[in-house]
Structure formats: structure tokens, C-alpha cells
Amino acid sequence: MPYLPEPSFTHGTPEKTGILLVNLGTPDAPTTPAVRTYLKEFLGDPRVVEMPRAIWWLILNGIILNTRPKKSAAKYASIWLKEGSPLRVYTEKQAALLQGYLGERAQAPFVVDYAMRYGNPSIPAVLRKLREQNCQRILVVPMYPQYAASTTATVTDIVYGELQKMRNTPALRTIKHFHDHSGYIKALAGNINDYWMKNGRPEKLVMSFHGLPRKSLDQGDPYHCECQKTGRLLAWELGLKPEQYAVTFQSRFGRAEWLQPYTGATLKELGKQKLKRMDIVCPGFVADCLETLEEIAQEGKETFQHAGGGEYHYIPCINDRNDWMHALTDLVIDNLQGWLVKPDAAELEQGRLRALEMGAPK
């Protein structure tokens, strides 16, 4: 297999460290064609849907991609911002803020950028962009607090696959998870407390995480356990008693059993109990997206109130909060130990001169 062309190089150029934030992805526009393209890539990933490829290909291309894109496009349109997809807008802000926050604490040259696992900007495109900036060390930060094979692992699949195409590969580090990171937990709690200070407190707080097929837990995926730990630590930080909160799982797809309790069923039951007010938050998402703004904020409210419930409050994700950005900066610095070394200008110049003497073009 031929390698990708190497970026132009000038001797004496300081090496940089790249920090790449990666989130799930989004269509380029809230339109049926754009959503179809996005879903084809997303649902075509064998880590996302674990079933025989031939059977799933028929289901995906024969049914899902002919029926779901139009419905999903309407849902995306209902939450689309003037700047674009909420997930992409907030992830871009997080990358820009991290560049600034990290710059206050690091003397060595570095670059922060972001990519989407599915859609644009793609991981391969941004990795090549970092290489062109002479990033010889890259820290990949999947923005999933809880590890799952269908999220975090699929990011590293693509990253390692891209490195296989390079002749001169950079040093690589990845962050597996941060579900119990103290800064992340405190940012979640701070976000909820700020909301309660302005809007009062509920009778019950529901913490909704994205669901996975039950078999993923049975086969050794730690996701369920990490969600439960996040919920427990968050409840402790908020001072909640067990009866004051619930951990649930949303976004069930297909007929197989998924992680329980299901968010939809829980909301319906709480509505039947005539709960006067419940609040819901999504601690598995660090940026608002379709699953939070449409599925939880809109559909969840309808489910709860249609069943007889009272007030329903969706608490937004931590997005670009100051405390979360400080926590993310701490997380990144912890994983950059030994990499943020200020280059020696004199040593670089001596190396450049030696290279020129030995016949290097530049």
C-alpha cells in the first residue's frame, strides 16, 4: 500500500503537540440527502451495529436509508442553530476555548483542533492538517465520558487506520474515559445547581445516558458500569438521596433488549404518578445534540406530560461552561506529561545548520 505524501519539512522547525477533540458526528445540513449520507456512515460502522454484515447491509440499504433520513432531517431542523449543527457548534467552541486555556499554562508549541467520527470535519482530514503543522505528538480526546466499544473504540479504529497510511507516524496517546474525573463531576453538578438556583428544584432528577444493547454489557463492555458510577458520583456531589434521582438509558433502536431502565418508560411512569415537577439531564453528553435537544427536551416532555406529569425541565449539557473547560484542560494536561517541553531555539538552529552542511535542501 503506498503511503500518503509527507508534509513539506524545514530543518530547525519546532515540533508541535496536537490535541484532537473528537465527538460522534452530525450531518452537514438538516436535509434528507445530508442525513442519509451521515446515517450510512454511522450505521454502517460494524462497531455501532454488531450483526452479520450481509444481513445488516440489506436492512440498512433496503429499509432504513429509504425511510429514516426524512424523519431524522425534520428532527434536526427543529434543533438546528443559525451557526449550524449544535454538536459541531459547541465542539468547535470547546476546541477554541481549550486552545486559550491551555495556552495560559503551557510554554511549548501546540495545536488544538476537533473532528467528528462520522461526517465533517473527518478524523483523517484533521489528522493530516495537524501533521502539516509539524505535530509530531498527538493526543486524541474522544469526548465520550463513559467508554464504549461503539463510541470511543471506533474513534481509535479510524485514528490507527490513518496512521497506517503514514510513512513518518507521530507519537500517539488516547484518553479512554473520564466518567469519574472529579472536575467533570463538579462541572456537571455546578451546571445543575446553577439551573436550580434560577428555576427552583424538582421532586426528582432523571439522569439519562445513551443506551446500548444489553448484550454489550454481557460481553464485557464497561459502559453500563461507568454510567452508573457517574450517576452515583453526581448524586453524591448534589447531595441527593437515592429516591431523589434515577439513572436511565435512552435512544433504544430495534427489537433487542437494551440497557434498562429505559428513559421513555421511566418518564411515562413518573407522569402516571402525577409528579408535579421533574428535571432531566444527560451526563453522558458534553455537548448538546439531537439526542438531548430533540429526543429528551422535546419528545421526553411530551411523554411525561401526556402520561399526567406536571412541569418538565431539561437541563442543558455542560457545553462551553467555564468550569467544564477548566476540567477539560486539567484532563488534557494530565495526559500530556513529558510532551509540553519548550524547544531550545539555539539547539534547533544548530541542527538546521548541520543539516544544511550535509546537503539538506532546507
Structural class: alpha/beta
Query: How far apart lie the N and C ends?
Result: 29 Å
Strand order of the largest sheet: 2-1-3-4
As residue ranges, the low-confidence spans are: none
Shape from CA axes?
globular
Biggest sheet statistics: 4 strands, parallel
| Beta-strand content estimate | 15-25%
> What is the element string, with H for helices and E for strands?
EHHHEHEHEHEHHEHEHEHH
Task: Return the CATH architecture of the largest domain.
Answer: 3-Layer(aba) Sandwich
CATH level 1 class label of the largest domain: Alpha Beta
The CATH topology of the largest domain is given as: Rossmann fold
Count of distinct strands = 8
* Total number of distinct structural domains: 2
The Rg value, from CA coordinates, equals: 23 Å
Mean pLDDT: 94
Number of helix segments? 12
Name the helicity range.
40-55%
Keywords: Cytoplasm, Heme biosynthesis, Iron, Lyase, Metal-binding, Porphyrin biosynthesis
Protein name: Ferrochelatase
Pathway: Porphyrin-containing compound metabolism; protoheme biosynthesis; protoheme from protoporphyrin-IX: step 1/1
Function: Catalyzes the ferrous insertion into protoporphyrin IX.
Name the features.
four-stranded parallel β-sheet; 2 domains; globular; 362 residues; 12 helices; Rossmann fold; EC 4.98.1.1; alpha/beta
Give an overview of the whole structure.
The structure is a single chain. The chain is built from twelve helices and eight strands. The strands form two sheets. It has a four-stranded parallel β-sheet with strand order 2-1-3-4, sandwiched between helices. Strands 6-5-7-8 form a four-stranded parallel β-sheet, with helices on both faces. It folds into two domains: 16-177 and 322-336, Rossmann fold (3-Layer(aba) Sandwich); 182-314, Rossmann fold (3-Layer(aba) Sandwich), CATH 3.40.50. The protein is of the alpha/beta class and 362 residues long. The chain is globular. Strand 7, helix 10 and strand 8 form a beta-alpha-beta unit. Helix 9 (263-272) packs parallel to helix 10. This is Ferrochelatase. Its EC number is 4.98.1.1.
